[in-house]
Each structure stands twice: as structure tokens, then as C-alpha cells.
């Protein structure tokens, strides 16, 4: 095999492939990037058995062939090369010679037949959206994906549910729920799948395109496929039942507060300086007419700060883990947000009128 | 005590004080910044018993007094405040109230009498230089300060030696020596002291000024003092004998090589991709007429690259730990450097004609 690349193309493709390289595997072949130039194009394939990536690399095939190269070494070598032409050539001992200007590397490779190629999946249902939208909706929900506790692996993923041309993405852990809705505006199939949080994290990092660049998502039995630019990412779906959030979505409230988001974030930030994660001391929201007074009181000291609000309904005193509040507020773009409360022991809803988002946060019991 | 500051002034001064706050101490008072406003000015004092910092803070004294505040909490609070007026006021229970706009913090302090004030040191000999020069000369030598092994604590510091108006700074570990010379150009005392590496690291971070800003260095019995802007840093000196580098400084050589520094750095960088720190595999320099051929050969693969040089003297094959070479090359500003070799088992000298610097690196024995 003999291939010729531009260093910049090669580096970009290697970076993409690295996202599906397992750092801790008992199968050394999974630490490799598979270079497949047996047909008319050059493909890099990587597969950590949960996530698989196939990307087409611009380059010239002087001699067809394939080889699996140790991903980390190959990636570091490519990164270190000057922005020039790079030749990758293999010999009969499965050694790859990488040459760029005067630099010459030789690294041991493996034959391609050991490699775990990606399964061929039937592409039934699909939706198309902008890379920007998908990246956004992932980043706006991924932070509250649960950890694998209690055996329900489904909660380590996000629910992607399409109904009547509307995508709803839900993630939740034991303290909070994040819901984002997105109108897809095209003829879409009805779908309900659970995509692993790890997959979505990598997808959000790979989707660097904007509003003009699209990504197609294919839903198949046990798999989801993301196709964009010259890259195809395949991931297993999670099995199991996702928590039914419908039962949580009540529209009843006794206190409604409108508040400047930026001021609230900064104020909670100051209050949480005195709260160590391990302390589990809440930040107290004392809501009265026109003012919410935030306070925290720990061994390190105490803090109090008033913020102007617009309030409807009853006064209320309620406590929150400051981290959960800030996580949700950070991914909301609006300048002014609206919070709905029922009582000091019922969850708080941060949502907008269009129901584009709904962040539900459980309070900390402060015994009032 | 009641003091009023601008948040930006306060934050700057707290940042300076934090450099002498010990993160692991058995004396809780050393985790505090001492605020002393008993006289006509506001001083922040911090002291980790090796390094002491006293800085004068711009601000208004409404009521005189002093208090020691937990440094980390105080620093985080100050950082979190908006850019506005900050009031720090103490009560009879040694609680400090910190108020800025609507934010109000209370943190417990300690009376000043427990605090370890800095010793009063007689300021005998002194030299003045630009902050830029001192910061440079520290950064150009600090990387080869030895670790505390074998009991000679002196080698965890740098030799500062002034003779005939010329400052020589030397650091060394078991593999290399870094020497920088600087003409002070003024009437200077003759001095020879060993300053702890940790002190110099903090000084280099504190000296943010340029060529117009000066720093005065006072040498006293057991102590050195750096005075700049509104800040005074006092450090213990290290006792013991510093290694006499004079015996190493031979001008004899059998091979002299002129080479482009940037190319050499990049090439060593590429070679070292295949060398794990733990392997102790050297990068081989094969020096012949007009060309040095760098190579490395490890379990991960092999690498070879030729660089153009201008050579005088014999051909030579010699091996180096790539990290030591790169450390030295990184702090040399010249575009072209000159390397002097005697044999494959003798140290390599990288120095310039004006003897502004001399980096001495021991080779790795490659058995040739």
C-alpha cells in the first residue's frame, strides 16, 4: 500500500478517528486506526465496540492496500509533521513508513483481517438537521445524564423521541431532568431511542459545522448512525426503559418568578464559594415581593445577596444544590428566565413559554 | 477595622499574597493573609516560613485595625465580586464582613497577634535591575534546578554570584548545568548566595513588569529580598556548598556544529515521540560533514531525519535524552546555535561567543 496525503487533511481525519479509540482495552487491535485503501477511496476506521467511526480521507492511492496502525503513535507522528506532503507506505512485514520532507518514521502495523470492521446496518428511518442544532441540543442536555448506578443503564443515555415532526431530547439523574424540544419541520418518522451519553459527547465534539452544514441521523434496530461531511459515526443504542417524564410535567404552580439569568448565575456562583460539594449545604432562595434573597451559611462563612425579581403568587423559602441550578442556567440563552415553584419540597421548573426547554430541579429539604 | 478598596486593586494584591500561602501546613495561621492597617497604610502580609510577601494595597482606611483572613476563601470571594467598591469591616468577634454592591459575605478571621510577621532584615548589599532581565534569567535557568536527593539541599536552588559588576546564575542537576551571565553595568557588591528554586519560580511569576520597571535585590545574612512596585518578597537563602562549575568549563573541543535552533527543536520533538520517559532510550546525533542525522529506535517504531549543519572538526556519533536538549534549546533566543563536543562520552556545550549562556548536557552512553 502506498498513499499520499496533505498533512492537514491527514491530521483532521486522524483526529476524527481518535474519538473511537479505546484507551483501555484488552484487544490491542482496537488501539489501532484501520487504514483501508483496498477500493477506490481511502477510509480510516476506528471502533471501540460501542462507537465506530468511518471517515473518508482526501489523498492519492498510488498502490492499493490496507493496514491497522497503532492510533496513538500514528496520531502523534502526524501532528508533529510539517504542513507538507505525507507518504504512508507499507512493506511485506507490515511495517508502515511515514515520510514527510526529511523526516522518516517506521512503525509496526497489523494486517487488516484482525480488525473489527463496523457492522453493516440497514438504514430505515432518518432525519436531517443542521450540525449547529444537533450540537446545541446535545450540549443543552448532556450535563444531567445519569451515572451507571442501580443497574438501569438506560439512564446513562439520552432519550431521543420524535413525534409529529418534533424532536424531544431528555436526560435525567436522581436530582434533575433536562428536556429540550426542537421542531424538525420535515416529514419525519416517529422514533423513540436511547443514545449513550458517551456517543453524544463525541458527536457534539465532531460536529464543528454551522447552520449551513447538515447531519443525517439514521435510526436502525439497536443502532444509530450519524452521517456528516465525509464521516459516518455508528453507535449502539441502549436497551431498557427510560423514565417516563410525562408524569412530572405539571403546569400547576403557586409561585412564579422572572429573573435576570446572568445576575442569578453570578450570585449563585458567589454563594457556592462557601459550599463544598461534600457538605451538601444548600443555597437558600428566600422569595418575597420583588426580591429573592440568596443565602448560604457554612463553616467557612456566610453570604447573603438580594436580586430583583418579578414575582406572581406566594412567598417561598426553598433550598437548592447550587451546582444543579448553575448547570441548567448555563445552557439557557434567554436574558430573562422564568421559574415555577409549587412548594419548598416540590421540584422547581425553569421553562419558557414555547416549551423549547424545561429544566426540572429537585430542592434540598431545608425543613421549613 | 474598616477598609474600602476598588475590587481590581484588591484582587491584584490578594493574587500577589497568595504566592506565599502554604497549601499544606500544620499551622492554620499560615493559611491566612494578614491585613494590617494599624498604621497609615494597608499592608497584606503572607508567610509560608520559606517565603514571605508584604504588599501595600491602595485603599481607604476608615477605621484602623488588623485581622488575619483565611486566604483561599478570601481570595475566592474577592475574585467573584463585581468590579466595584469593596468594604471590609471587622467586628469584636473577629468576623470580617465583606460587602460589594448587594453581595454581603461574613467570614471568620483571627486576631493578628498569632500571625508570624516577617523578620526584620538588615539590607546591606543591593543591586537594581529591570524586571524583564531578572524574570528572563530565572526562566532561562530554573528548569535544571535539582531535586532534593542525596541530602545536598543547596542544589535545589540557584547560585546567584556577582563579581565585577557581572551576575552569573547557575542551576544544575545530575545530568546538566545551565549558566546565564548578565552585565549589571553599575557599581555592585560582590555576592555569592544560593536562592531556593521555589522562591525564584514565584518571583518570576510576580515580576510582570517590562524593561522600564525595576526590581531591587537586597542580599543579607541568610535572606534575600526582592523589592518591586509596592511589593517586598523575602526568602531564606539555602545553606551549603554549591557545585563548583568552574572545573567543567573547558574550551577544548573536537567537533563544533552550527545549526538552526527551530529546526533542531522540531526534529528532536519528532524523535522523542517514540521515546517514553521511562525507556531511557536516547536520540542519536550522527554528525558528519554538513549534516546531522537524528534517529531514535524503540519498541514503538523508528525515526530518522537529516538536518543541515555547518561543522568544524571530527565526525561524531553521540546520544542524548531528548528532554534535556529541548529544555535548553527552548530558552535560547538565537536563531542559530553553536554546539561543542569533545567525544561521545563527554558533555556537550551549547554556548554563545559572548558567553551570555552556557548549557552543558551529559550524553547517554551508547557504547561507541
Helical fraction of chain A equals 10-25%
Biggest sheet strand line-up of chain A: 14-11-12-13-25-24-23-18-21-20-19-22
List low-confidence stretches of chain A: none
Cα-to-Cα separation, first versus last residue of chain A: 73 Å
What is the radius of gyration of chain A computed over CA atoms, rounded to a whole number of angstroms? 25 Å
The number of distinct helices of chain A, counting runs of at least 4 residues, comes to 6
- Strands of chain A, count: 25
Secondary-structure class of chain A: alpha+beta
| Beta content of chain A | 35-45%
Q: Largest sheet of chain A, if any? A: 12 strands, antiparallel
The rough form of chain A would be described as: elongated
Oligomer category: homodimer
* Largest interface by Cβ-Cβ < 8 Å: A-B, 28 and 28 residues
- What is the average of the pLDDT values of chain A? 93
